[in-house]
Each structure stands twice: as structure tokens, then as C-alpha cells.
Amino acid sequence: MSQSFSTWKKEGTSYHLVPTDKFKTTTILVTFSAPLEAKTLTSRAILPYIMEKSTAAYPSMKALREPLETLYDAGLYADASKFGEEHVISFQLDVVRGELVHHPSLLKEALELLEQMVLYPDLTEGGFREQFVKQEKRLHALRISSLYDDKMRYAQQRLLELMAPGEAVALPSLGTLEELEQITPSSLRDTYRSMIEDDRIDVFVVGHVTKEEMEDALSFLPSHSEKISHYIPAQKAVNGVKRSSETQPIKQGKLHLGYRVAVDPTSADSIRMQIVNGLFGGFPHSKLFMNVREKESLAYYAASRYAALNSALYVYAGVDTKEAERAEKIILEQLVDLKAGQFTDEELTQTKAMLINARRQILDQPGQLIGWLNGSKMRGLTLEDEIHIIETATREDVVRLAAAIDLDAVYLLRGEA
Amino acid sequence: MMEQLTYHDTDETVYHEQLDNGLSVYLLQKKGYEKTYATFTTRYGSIDQRFKKGEEWITVPDGIAHFLEHKMFESEKGDVFQEFGRLGASANAFTSFSRTAYLFSATSLIEQNLETLIDFVQDPYFTPESVEKEKGIITQEIQMYQDNPGWRLFFGLIESMYASHPVRIDIAGTPESINQITADDLYTCYRTFYHPSNMVLFVVGNIDPEETLALIKANQAKKDYTDRPAIERDYGQEPHGVHRPRFELELDVKTPKVLIGYKDESLRGEAQVRRELTSELLLHLLFDQTSSTYLELYEDGLIDDTFSFDYSSEEEFAFATFGMETEDPDKFIQAYETLLQTRPDFTEDEVTRKRNMMQGKFLRALNSPEFIANQFSRHALAGTNLFTLPTLIASITKEEIEARFDELFAIENRAISIVKPYE
């Protein structure tokens, strides 16, 4: 692994660059981050859907998308997401390298469109265009209610609400129907202005470009005083296990467990915790997969995921509702065994090898590289550092960290079809 | 002798050799990549449930190709996943209508991982006990899909378009059909479809093609494969037109979903690749956000971000689909019926723009070793070549696209599937 990265600040914006010529594309991500709050969430969640559809100079989808198609399917999209206790609006551009299609100015022309989208939205009517806002509100309502149709996501959202009722991390990422009702063309304009004026800006670039080219290309971004980031949620102690269940006319039950993890997400231990998660339910050789699926044939999937930023670990399994109790018992036993050090050296070695493999593969995908840069900026570790931490972790580390995992909530979506 | 094929418009080189036992090996070197990704694919999928065993035609239970895929991961020594795990690789497999693929991705110990992949796929081991145990797991997998509105919508459409072709059977089968599967059935299917002459091995990554080929050859030389007659498969006689024009299903959803399909005739070889690309260009011209109709439909709430379209084609079947989530499926259906009655006038500029777009899409996809291996194997098993796509796209004319419109959108080939909330 010899990939170099560089990170620097200019006019309040943090730049992260991965110069490489191994991809057919150049990928640029610009993110605007603000505190995650119930009162602004819905407005910020719908804003990117409107901004990616037109701009002042390209006042319709057709006008905006035509040049992107001509530029060899240049991808230019806006998106919104939660990141710990921050809300992030992002604009992504990815474009084929000009020399592959004999069009040397390709990137420059595509960047021009990115600038238009970020800086010059269609505010000719004072606010955003009423007709677009109306359409997008209707669509956004559809998106919010569609969450119900995806049972795995629905169950996970319910679990989050059970774990942290009323807290920022449990807010639904698309917002709520009640807040959506209140949105107007001019309230959206205010949300947009606040994004430009108040948000912290980060820029990520993966491709065959230099630092100077990049700064020059993105010089249109607003300059800021330096902003402090505050996305890491405070840790919570467990106070008794919370339980909730619901019944819907579906075939398969969804069992979701939420654990609190008393580990600082910026520490090296948060990297080692991935090993604990891997042994528990992260891989096909993990305790959950081997016992819930392979040994007892109770589920097709039974897995765990460590969300370092939220200091939480989630377990999810799709099971026959009649077997949910037995599945839960087996899941709980697996963690007890892990805490007691009941895992083989081979399992440990295997888990480390898989985690290292996954880290190296990050370098082969522009999107994953950007995701890693963003997720790891709080630790200030390189990929090599992370690999070294995993390689040198011991059995004692695993037992010590497994002890920091506490069951907080159990949610069951019962099937009755 | 290894054949070397360089594609200048993609900046990629593929090495190919067909081994003595019939196995086709393809190697692609991706300089600078950390990962090596390998797929070992057989031309055997869920549609192959009736075939000749010796002199006799036999029919096997629905879902058996997928069941076999699950069971291949068991070897006499234990679980193959664990073996890959020890080598730091992640392994997986998938079964489609017409293929089963086994794969791994790894950043170290590539040679051992590659041998593990080849050896486990070439060494079946099933016991009646392990076959029984798998039934519980696969039943849960089937139930998970039964709760997935998108999957039910899609299969509701396929079942409506096809009267007898086995594409209408769910890839995983049903809890009842998989319950009939025995270890003997699995061996029968294995012996019929996993001969090297029915398979393609694709390796992409930072590999040395010469050394990798030598390793594969040495591995195959150790195994006894005798020549075997061609596989005879029976997909029945699918009548013209659709089986039923409309299908509705109530599920636990909030928003109705509608999917419209046009059953197409499937050609062979490069002619079908051309037909597939022409159809995709046509669908883009009709339904992209830049189409002349999009804005109009958008304003009426008849097209939005949940709208999607696709053209699927395999050797034995082909169809176009489009649909979206909508409060009023019938209004949607009616609007599209009207829209597709008369062919819009496409301009040369539009067509050029779409060709550019498809070229760019293809080049972007080449960032992904997974895309390259999976799609290249699909083409290789159909006797075509993935890397001819840029040239083909460039050669498709406006007239061809217009002719495709007239061919594809015949009302007798249209079926509709709707998933809606319980009354």
C-alpha cells in the first residue's frame, strides 16, 4: 500500500486529496455540515433533492442534465445524511477522465456545473420555484412513508428510537411529515442561505489531480472562519433493558438488538472494537452466523454492526416469529461467551485478516475512499496505522473491550401473515 | 496458447485461454489495485430445471440451482467460508436465472485463495443430514424475499409475462419445492452442469497473467475430466404474447407500486447484445430526465425519482420493464399507454448525447473489478465480448432505435404488475 493522502485547510474549508491515476474517473465531494436538530432536519433533508434538479442558469431538469449526459454521463448529485450529531448536505461530482474520451476539458466543464448547482440555485421567484417545491414536498412525503415498506430499515429506526428517544441520533434521516407541511419556497431559501453562510465545509477529491489544480477548481466555495466540529454524541450508560414489539402482516419476524459501547470513538480502541464485532457477528465465521444460522438454522441473516460514532453496536436477524425468543437467547449467549474469552486463536487471526483485507480494498473504490477519509478524520490515523492496530491487538484486548458492551434495547417486529 | 486482447478505447487488456478440459480462463491485470477479484461461473441457473440425464429427460425441484450454490460451501474438511477466512479473503456466491457464480476478493495470498476457489467448486460433498439442515436457512431466505415488495412486484410481472418458461419460477424456489430436494438430486445437477466446458474462470486484479495462468493449468492438470457431450436443456414452448395482462397483490405497504413489462424476443450472440444496447438507448431517450416527455409527466406527478426502467436479456428470454411508486397506478398506466402509442421524433443530437452517456457509463463501470468479472463472464458464456460495447454503442443509429420502438411496445406483449396496500 503506497497510496498517499493529503489534508489541509484553506479559508476555513478542509481539503482531503487522494492523488491517483488508477481510476477511470475523478470524484469530488463537497459537504456542508451543521448540528443535527429536529427543527431544521426536514428542511435540510429535502433541500438537496430540489437543488440537484435545476439552477438559475439551467432552470429545468432537462436543461441541467443535458450537458451532463454530453459530458459522458458526468454524475452530479446532491444528498443529505446524518453523521453522528451533525447533518450533512453533500454535492458529488464524478466524471470520466478526459483523455479516455479525447475531451481534455471534461473535468473543467463539469466543475462549472457543480459551481452552478452549489452557488446559483434558482431563486428567481425570491424563494425556490414554487412549482418545484410543491412537487418535491409530495415526493418527500412518499419517501418518508416508504420507510414503512422496507421492514429491515423500519425495524432499525424503531430500535434507534427505543434506545435514544427524542435524541438527535434517533431522528429519522428524511425528517417528518409534520415538519414537511411547514416548508415553503422562502423557508427553503433561508435553509439554503444558512447552509452557505454557517455550515462547515469539507472537500474530498480522488483522482488524477494536484493540490493546486484542486484549490483553483474549487475557489468558488465561500470562505469562512474556522468552524469547530461537534458531531460525536455523548456516551450513554445503560439503565435496564428497554423492550418493544409490534405486529405487522408479514412472513418473517425482524429481531433487532441495540447495545451501548463504552469506548471513545476517537481512540485506537474503537479500531480494536471492530475485531470484537467481527468475532461476534461481522463475518461468516462469526458467532452469530455460525450459531444462529449454521448450527440452529434459525435465520438466513444474523449479523452485528459496530457504529463507532454513536458508541453503539446493533444486532439484526430475520427469523420466524415463533423462534424469536430462542434466537434472542442464542444471540445473548454468544456475547456472554465472547466476554468470557471463549473464542479460538484461529477465529481471532481470521477476523483480523478479514478486517485488514477490507481496509486494503478501500483503496480500490473512490466512493469508499472518501467514506473512509470522512469517517476517520476524527481519529487522525492513516489506513496503515489502523492496520497496525488490528495486527497487534491481543486476545486480552478483545476480552477487555467485549466487557464494554451492554445490552440497551430489544425490538421485535412480529410477522403475522 | 494465451490470447492477448487489448481494447484501446478502454485502456484494458484481457488474456484468454481455453484449457484442454474445456474451461475458459480470462485474466485482466488492474495495475495499482490492491484487490484481486475472481469469479468461477457456470452456465446453470434457476431456469435449468429440465434437462437430459443420460438418455432420459428429468425435471428437478424448483430452486435447486440456488440450493446447490449454498451447499457447495460445505466440503469434507468443513466449511469453505472458514478456509477463505483463514486466508483473509471474503467469499460469496450468487445464483441468477441462467448462471451460478462463486467468487472471492482478497488483497493477499492470492494464489492460495484462487486454488481454494477452484478446488471447492470442483469438489462437491453433500450428506443427507447437511441437506436437511440447509432447508431451514433457505426457507428464511425465501420468507425474507416474500416480505420484499420490490421482489414480489418483479416476480408478479415475470409470472404474468411468461406462461410456461421457467424464468417465471422464483430463483430460490418455494419452501415446499426445496423440501423435496435430496443429496442425490444435488449430485445429478452438479454432474450435469459443473463440467469445466460449461464454465468460465475470470480473475481481475494486480496479477501477473502468465503466472496466474500457469497456476490454473497446473491445478486443472491434476484433475480427471473426460470429454462430455453438450448439455441438453428444455425450456418448453413459450407461447407468443403475455400469459396474463395484469396482476395485483396486496401487501403490507403504504404506497402502491406498479411495474409494466414488455416481453421481447431474444436473439443469439452479438445480435442480442446490439438489441440490448439499442433497447437501453431507446429507454433512456424516452424516460431520462432530459427526455421531451419527462417534464410534462413530472408536472402531472406521473414520473419522479422512484421511476426506474431496465432491459434484461439472457440467451433464452428478454424483456423491458419500467415502473414507479404511485398513489394512482391506473392513472400511471393510462398515461404511459398514451405515450407509447406514437413514437416521439428523436433528433440526431439527442441520439449522439445518449451514445456519449452510455459510453461514459460503461467507462465508469470499469473502475469496478466486480463489474468487469461478472459482466465479462456473462458475455463469455453467451459467446459475446464485453469490451466490444463501446464500438457497438457508437455504431447504433437513430433508425435502429426507432425500429426498436415499433417492435418492442406491442400491446399483446405487455403485462402489468401492481403491489398495493391491504384494503
UniProtKB/TrEMBL annotation, chain A:
Residues 183-355 form the Peptidase M16 C-terminal domain. SUPFAM superfamilies: LuxS/MPP-like metallohydrolase (SSF63411). Gene3D superfamilies: Metalloenzyme, LuxS/M16 peptidase-like. It comes from the Bacteria. Pfam families: Peptidase_M16_C (PF05193). GO terms for molecular function: metal ion binding. PANTHER family: INACTIVE METALLOPROTEASE YMFF-RELATED (PTHR11851:SF186), METALLOPROTEASE (PTHR11851). This is Peptidase M16.
